[in-house]
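As a warm-up, study this chain.
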Amino acid sequence: MNTRVVGRPEPDEIPSPWVGYIKRVPELDPVLACAAQIEETANLLRPLSDADAMYRYDRGKWSIKEVVGHLCDIERIMAYRTLRIARGDLTPLPGFDENAYVPVGKFDNRSLADLVGELRTARAATLALLRTFDTDAWLRRGTANGKPVSVRALAFMIPGHERHHVEILKTRYRVGSA
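Now compare it with the structure written out below.
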């Protein structure tokens, strides 16, 4: 039985750049959203070949493989932030440049299946962590990238960020269209 009560984050818990991501998660429990989402994303990407996954919809845009690699990176960073804040660590957490991470990640040199496998593994670790939080942990707040944020805002941001990129994969990359 699920006795977890997370509650939606209040506006003062959400850094302004994340508001749109969090709005993409209407579910009341971000853990359940994360658990269901990984299969949806994997199923969307499954039909693509490695050659298909090299597609970029415009010059200077990430390939599909790079988008998946980016999702892996963000999953880990947000889960790390969630861990630190949930454990009561008040140390301000630094920001990062996602655009600098992607080229160094060399995601295009890997198979799409390997990248999706990594995303599954990162999500499994995130879920294992989130499932340990009690009511007090969900409400803890800290600072990331110079902005106040709560554990629950981070937990909603994780699936919201992925939904944002899945929508881009569907609309701009035409993944999943017949």
